[in-house]
Amino acid sequence: MDSPAAVPPTAGISLRQLLMSLGEPLVELQTAPAGLDVEIRSVALLDPEDPPVAHPGELVLAIGARGRAAFPALRAAGRDGAAAVAVKLDAPGQAAALSETAADAGVALLSVRGDARWDQVDAIARAALDDAPVDGSGESADDAAEGDLFSLAQTTAMLTGGIVSIEDTAHRVLAYSRSADHDEADDLRRQSILGWQGPEAYLARLREWGVFQRLRTSDDVINVDSHPELGIRRRLAIAIRSGDRQLGTIWVQEGSTPLTERSDQALLGAARVAALHLVRRRRELSADVTLARTLAAGLLEGSSGPQPLASHLGLDAARPAAVLGFSYGAAEATGPELTRAEVTNLISVHTAARHRAALVTEGDHRIYVLLPQLPRSIDIGTLRGWGQDIADTARRHLGLPLRGSIGCIVPGLGKVPDSRREADRILDAMVNADVATTVAALPDIQAEVLVSEMLALLADRPDMRDPRLTAVTDHDSRHQGRLAESILAYLNAFGDVRAAAAQLHVHPNTVRYRIGRAEQLTGLDLSRPDQRLLAMLQLRLPG
Q1: Mode of pairing for the β-strands spanning 439-441 and 403-406
Q2: I need a surface site. Which of 197, 256, 308, 415 has the fewest CB within 10 A?
Q3: In this predicted model, what pLDDT tens digit does every residue of 170-185 receive, in sequence order?
Q4: If DSSP codes are grouped into helix, strand and coil, which group holds residue 284?
């Protein structure tokens, strides 16, 4: 084994920090039985010809030992106190067996992308160790976090109908919403923005009224009445907290129109989302939230188990969980990237207001909400209501036709992929079958989901199609005909020629002619139930 020079213990980093440095998709965490805070103090390369030995706190890069050949390295790492082992997999199915062996050995397992170079992994890991801070002092304004705060302020303003500012505990303005009408801002708002800090005279009045004391001791939304004699309009405030520690405050000033009915709920969600950004600023760990989202995405996809995410966020993996899915097309909105950020913020604020542990991740034109450790008494109807509120708000404020799906409630984090698959099945059917419902659970549109999946099967398996029906659609393509359309209308009308003709805007005799012509050309016999059933399915396939 090629071991590096000893690294001082103070230069160690946690497995969490290492994952942030290596990042997806270079490596993927498969299991971490000791959690993500286990310390890594050095990196070692294990050649397949070397005896499998390790040292305490090492990250062992098992080069040349793909798949099951890495079992000896895992056992040796656990025996000798190593922190983690990185391997390459020959096949996806190997991850489960290797993860089980790693868990038994008490060592973390990282899978390295097949086309990645070991020297690249080695260099990044050693650089992370070299850059490890001796202490955790120092704060910096993270540009990404700052941008997120301004975006959050704008989303909160949209949901409350007010003018928003986000401050730290020293009353310094960190971010604020844009206002189309500058006359709506009162003196306190203008002076705070222009000076990036609340004016002392007004702060003294707020202290006198007990506002700051209530913010320090309460998680509730606090109402501050208007004081025209002081140039202060009505405003709401809520503390941004991490545990018992206050990180800042969100203020919402009422403009020329009253705040929305659900302003309190929107503020509660915004405070929980803002806490994530302010924690990032204080810790200088901008990748921390990214890691949580990466672990959540891996769990949703089924590529990693529940333990890494549960360990990272301190979740109870045995509590019920569910997945909400939301879909929109980029072509449905102007400025799709801006809309995507606005939709993600909107969903984050809404779900955080209802469930503190909610996690939002993104896919291709789909946004998923993972709801871990749900109350055991929760039901699908409650989750459907959450989803409907989000869809209604997106349409009202963003003009976006958002579709939502409610995955099944599963008994624990380990079954989350089942809930995500169900959410996807529902969204697929809502798009393919053009379902009018905007938010649905499986019982709401079960028939549409099953028909959609049967059509997908027929689309992928041409050998399962009736060649006579294929001949009908081919004839239409060559002759610009409407035989297939007429057959489907006739079958959808349960054989009622007049109803089919009305739907097609033709004479009933035209429908009769087209049905007879199709049967004559292809040998179809639409008096047979089995042929009628297959025709109803196959002719729904896109041309």
Answers
A1: parallel
A2: 256
A3: 677 788 886 544 445 5
A4: coil
